[in-house]
Amino acid sequence: MSTRPTPEQLAAVEAFAVGGHVVLQAGAGSGKTTTLVQMARRKRRPGQYLVFNRSIADGARRRFPRHVGADTAHSLAYQAVGWRYAERLAMPCMSSAKLAAVLGPTGTRWPKCCRCSGPGVESP
Protein backbone atom coordinates (compact mmCIF):
# COMPACT_ATOMS: atom_id res chain seq x y z
CA MET A 1 0.00 0.00 0.00
CA SER A 2 1.42 3.36 -1.01
CA THR A 3 0.47 6.66 0.55
CA ARG A 4 1.19 10.15 -0.64
CA PRO A 5 4.08 11.86 1.12
CA THR A 6 3.16 14.79 3.32
CA PRO A 7 4.55 18.26 2.53
CA GLU A 8 7.01 17.80 5.44
CA GLN A 9 8.20 14.47 4.05
CA LEU A 10 8.63 15.97 0.57
CA ALA A 11 10.64 18.87 2.01
CA ALA A 12 12.91 16.47 3.93
CA VAL A 13 13.47 14.27 0.87
CA GLU A 14 14.26 17.30 -1.30
CA ALA A 15 16.68 18.76 1.27
CA PHE A 16 18.45 15.40 1.43
CA ALA A 17 18.55 15.09 -2.36
CA VAL A 18 20.40 18.39 -2.75
CA GLY A 19 22.89 17.50 -0.03
CA GLY A 20 21.40 19.34 2.93
CA HIS A 21 21.54 18.25 6.52
CA VAL A 22 18.27 16.75 7.66
CA VAL A 23 16.99 15.99 11.15
CA LEU A 24 13.74 14.06 11.49
CA GLN A 25 12.12 14.66 14.84
CA ALA A 26 8.60 13.34 15.23
CA GLY A 27 6.49 11.06 17.37
CA ALA A 28 6.03 7.32 17.07
CA GLY A 29 4.13 6.24 13.98
CA SER A 30 4.46 9.61 12.27
CA GLY A 31 6.35 8.37 9.22
CA LYS A 32 10.03 8.89 10.01
CA THR A 33 11.08 5.50 8.62
CA THR A 34 8.91 5.99 5.53
CA THR A 35 10.61 9.34 4.97
CA LEU A 36 14.05 7.77 5.32
CA VAL A 37 13.11 5.05 2.83
CA GLN A 38 12.00 7.77 0.39
CA MET A 39 15.32 9.57 0.91
CA ALA A 40 17.29 6.38 0.28
CA ARG A 41 15.40 5.70 -2.94
CA ARG A 42 15.82 9.27 -4.17
CA LYS A 43 19.56 9.59 -3.57
CA ARG A 44 21.45 6.33 -3.94
CA ARG A 45 24.28 6.89 -1.50
CA PRO A 46 25.38 4.52 1.26
CA GLY A 47 23.57 4.91 4.54
CA GLN A 48 23.06 3.27 7.91
CA TYR A 49 19.74 2.94 9.74
CA LEU A 50 20.38 2.37 13.46
CA VAL A 51 17.58 0.74 15.45
CA PHE A 52 17.04 -0.56 18.97
CA ASN A 53 16.08 -4.19 18.37
CA ARG A 54 16.58 -6.99 15.90
CA SER A 55 12.95 -7.26 14.78
CA ILE A 56 12.94 -3.61 13.70
CA ALA A 57 16.28 -4.12 11.91
CA ASP A 58 14.91 -7.17 10.09
CA GLY A 59 11.82 -5.24 8.96
CA ALA A 60 13.93 -2.26 7.88
CA ARG A 61 16.18 -4.47 5.75
CA ARG A 62 13.10 -5.49 3.78
CA ARG A 63 12.02 -1.86 3.29
CA PHE A 64 15.29 -0.06 2.52
CA PRO A 65 17.26 -0.39 -0.71
CA ARG A 66 20.39 -2.57 -0.56
CA HIS A 67 22.75 0.41 -0.23
CA VAL A 68 21.35 1.20 3.23
CA GLY A 69 22.31 -1.00 6.17
CA ALA A 70 19.89 -1.62 9.04
CA ASP A 71 21.42 -2.79 12.29
CA THR A 72 21.23 -2.49 16.05
CA ALA A 73 24.00 -0.69 17.93
CA HIS A 74 24.94 -4.01 19.49
CA SER A 75 25.27 -5.74 16.12
CA LEU A 76 27.50 -2.95 14.80
CA ALA A 77 29.69 -3.19 17.89
CA TYR A 78 29.90 -6.97 17.49
CA GLN A 79 30.85 -6.60 13.81
CA ALA A 80 33.59 -4.13 14.75
CA VAL A 81 35.15 -5.79 17.80
CA GLY A 82 32.76 -8.25 19.45
CA TRP A 83 33.76 -11.18 17.30
CA ARG A 84 37.11 -11.09 19.13
CA TYR A 85 35.24 -11.91 22.33
CA ALA A 86 32.82 -14.51 20.96
CA GLU A 87 34.10 -17.18 23.35
CA ARG A 88 33.60 -14.92 26.38
CA LEU A 89 30.19 -13.80 25.20
CA ALA A 90 29.06 -17.42 24.99
CA MET A 91 29.98 -18.07 28.64
CA PRO A 92 27.27 -18.22 31.31
CA CYS A 93 26.35 -14.89 32.89
CA MET A 94 27.39 -14.03 36.43
CA SER A 95 25.03 -12.17 38.73
CA SER A 96 26.17 -8.79 40.02
CA ALA A 97 26.08 -10.15 43.59
CA LYS A 98 28.43 -13.01 42.67
CA LEU A 99 30.67 -10.64 40.70
CA ALA A 100 30.93 -8.34 43.73
CA ALA A 101 31.85 -11.32 45.93
CA VAL A 102 34.52 -12.46 43.44
CA LEU A 103 36.04 -9.00 43.03
CA GLY A 104 35.83 -8.18 46.73
CA PRO A 105 36.47 -4.79 48.30
CA THR A 106 38.92 -2.63 46.42
CA GLY A 107 39.41 0.34 48.73
CA THR A 108 37.73 2.54 46.14
CA ARG A 109 36.02 5.66 47.36
CA TRP A 110 32.64 5.90 45.66
CA PRO A 111 31.68 9.52 44.96
CA LYS A 112 28.38 10.98 46.07
CA CYS A 113 26.03 11.31 43.12
CA CYS A 114 22.55 12.64 42.51
CA ARG A 115 21.05 9.16 42.93
CA CYS A 116 22.71 8.52 46.29
CA SER A 117 20.92 9.45 49.48
CA GLY A 118 24.02 10.09 51.55
CA PRO A 119 27.71 10.89 51.41
CA GLY A 120 30.21 8.73 49.58
CA VAL A 121 31.01 5.36 51.12
CA GLU A 122 34.52 4.09 51.45
CA SER A 123 35.18 0.38 51.05
CA PRO A 124 37.42 -1.27 53.68
Question: Which descriptors apply to this entry?
Answer:
two-stranded antiparallel sheet, alpha+beta, disordered C terminus, 124 residues
Structural notes for this entry:
Residues 6-39 form the UvrD-like helicase ATP-binding domain. With 124 residues, the protein is an alpha+beta fold. The protein has a domain at 7-92. It has six helices and four strands, in the order ααβαβαααββ. The chain has helices at 7-17, 32-42, 54-63, 73-80, 86-89, 96-103, and strands spanning 47-51, 68-72, 109-110, 121-122. The strands form two sheets. A two-stranded parallel ribbon has the order 1-2. Strand 1 (47-51), helix 3 (54-63) and strand 2 form a beta-alpha-beta unit. Helix 1 (7-17) runs parallel beside helix 2 (32-42). The radius of gyration is 23 Å and the shape is elongated. 8% of the residues are buried.
Helical segment count: 6
Shape: elongated
Percent helix range: 40-55%
Instruction: Please write the string of helix (H) and strand (E) elements.
Output: HHEHEHHHEE
Number of strands: 4
Strand proportion: 5-15%
Average pLDDT for all residues? 83
What does the main sheet amount to?
2 strands, parallel
Distance between the termini: 65 Å
Poorly predicted runs are: 115-124
Q: Structural class of the helix and strand makeup?
A: alpha+beta
Strand order of the largest sheet: 1-2
The Cα radius of gyration reads 23 Å
Pfam families: UvrD-helicase
Domain UvrD-like helicase ATP-binding: 6-39
Keywords: ATP-binding, Helicase, Hydrolase, Nucleotide-binding
GO molecular function: 3'-5' DNA helicase activity; ATP binding; DNA binding; hydrolase activity
